[in-house]
């Protein structure tokens, strides 16, 4: 079933994505807490293609972060199956198939910026020379080459988040999981970081699953925006934005009609999700 809202394509959650090996495959995933008293997620099915940028959006408490943690194998689903690049979530975690970044950068204060980026490589016993080459490349890519020997306390919040993203990419994961990484930043820094993330994801080819409360952020960043209902969290619609964002001209894109149309489409889908299980084909 497909509908069109303000020029953006909206589909229900049963639409499959064609890809040789999906980055993430969720099939009828559910999560129940407190001895069956709280249903956080219900019947969530979603495919994220390799190299695709997908955002999860919905009201507070709808299970967006829980779903991300299930993909990362930080929590176990009560029902359903999860695969990451054809592996179980547990095996994907063991094999370091993904990098992860949260709202707080989580940097170690006593390590320099470069040492923070190198930490995953150090834990996997990568030789020092290779660690240094990789971290230097990532810091240059993140625009932080001149800050390699600084400590986290000497950086701004946006710079710390760029270090955290660089660290998440250290082992060249084909998947990046991000839980509101820019939520605590001011608007100008947030927009710069959105552009940086698009550039980095484009250069590395990593798929991204991104949790946010911001409709404009989701539309700017994503190939598709996955809309979730209030608890129990279900996927009520998927809005195809047509990849409206580009890192080198974000200001122009955010002022274009297609961008506004996609924002309106996500907003309408969120409203519909409060009352309907899917977005109907005849919805204007």
From TrEMBL:
InterPro entries: AAA+_ATPase, ABC_transporter-like_ATP-bd, ABC_transporter-like_CS, ABC_transporter_ATP-bind, P-loop_NTPase. Residues 24-255 form the ABC transporter domain. Keywords: ATP-binding, Nucleotide-binding, Transport. Gene3D superfamilies: P-loop containing nucleotide triphosphate hydrolases (3.40.50.300). It holds the Pfam family ABC_tran. One of its GO terms (molecular function) is ATP hydrolysis activity. PANTHER family: ABC TRANSPORTER ATP-BINDING PROTEIN, TAURINE IMPORT ATP-BINDING PROTEIN-RELATED. This is ABC transporter ATP-binding protein.
